[in-house]
Amino acid sequence: MKVQIEDKEFTCFLEYEQIKKRTRLLGIQLNVDYENKVPVFIGVLTGSFLFMADLMKEVHVPAEMSFIKVSSYMGQDTSSGVVKSIIGLDIDLKGRDVVIVEDIVDTGLTLGFLLDVLRKHEPASVAICTLLLKPLALQREIEEISYVGFEIPNEFVVGYGLDYKGLGRNLRDIYRFIPAPSET
Ligand code: IMP
User: Fold this and answer.
1) Contacting residues for 143 by C-beta, under 8 A, at least 6 apart
2) pLDDT averaged over the chain?
3) Which of 95, 127, 138, 162 has the smallest set of CB atoms within 10 Å of its CB?
4) What is the number of the ligand 1 atom nearest to the C-alpha of 112?
């Protein structure tokens, strides 16, 4: 099946049933790894909202959960010109076992920033659970990535929380961009 979002056409890549099955397995893994612990799951908005909701239904250990947002704004005092900050962190993470829930890790730069900030809160442990990982796009090694739903090629994807130009987050399945012949 294909969908058109603004100027781009996307084709179905991962169906919701596949995502659900994989999420169930991630939940089983988390239940084993966090047995006798009370982890804090932190979803990174906006993209993780559907994955977080489905994942949490598969986690049966007692757990706290929260959402944060990484905001970017143009600053004048950094080399890249982009300054990031975290909004919404409302749980004291000191001594806690933290699981960051991401929709996708692409270059890993956002996650790298997030990890640097979270480590300052002195958690007992930090692990990352991401639905999608683009290994070929990763610009730095991130050893905390312990739970991966699917490794995918270096292609733009949309749906199940992920957007293109703000649209497509409410698609049930995940779609990948089909480049026009002139764009390949
Ligand atoms: P990073 O490159 O790992 O820092 O990715 C940062 C953010 O870019 C992710 O959390 C997503 O919100 C967004 N992103 C990266 N790749 C895609 C994609 O293929 N589709 C939609 N959003 C993406």
Assistant:
1) none
2) 92
3) 95
4) 4
